[in-house]
Specification:
By secondary structure, the chain is mainly alpha-helical. Helices cover about 60% and strands about 5% of the residues. It has 5 helices and 2 strands.
């Protein structure tokens, strides 16, 4: 039960996860995730200045859980190296942004009168 609650919490993008938690839930090692950070494909959250002396581990937005799981599965299926995983993660993120823009534009268009309507 606690594992299920933790799972739902991680799917909430307002939550945060540590590097080790992210590694455990995505099936990747902390060293692999650090390499993705080095490639700028995975972005840790900036710590608050008051937290700096207390932080021992990088913290990430929980929004990374789902995409990292997907690329981790693809990595295993197709035997991908980490550089390819980084590129894939960047492309998946860009696709998600574009899909969100399309949904926003579709919602805006739905409120406009249709061509030929005389109302």
């Amino acid at each position: 039960m606690a594992a299920q609650q933790l799972e739902w919490m991680w799917l909430d993008a307002t939550e945060t996860v540590t590097l080790s938690e992210l590694a455990r839930c995505c099936g990747m090692s902390t060293m692999e995730l650090d390499e993705l950070v080095d490639y700028k494909a995975l972005l840790p959250m900036a710590p608050e200045p008051t937290q700096l002396p207390l932080m021992f581990e990088r913290v990430f937005s929980a929004e990374w859980v789902t995409p990292l799981r997907k690329v981790s599965q693809l990595r295993q299926t197709y035997d991908l190296d980490l550089f390819t995983v980084a590129m894939l993660l960047n492309h998946m993120s860009r696709i998600e942004e574009l899909e969100q823009q399309v949904r926003t534009l579709e919602a805006q268009l739905a409120h406009l009168p249709k061509h030929g309507d005389t109302d």
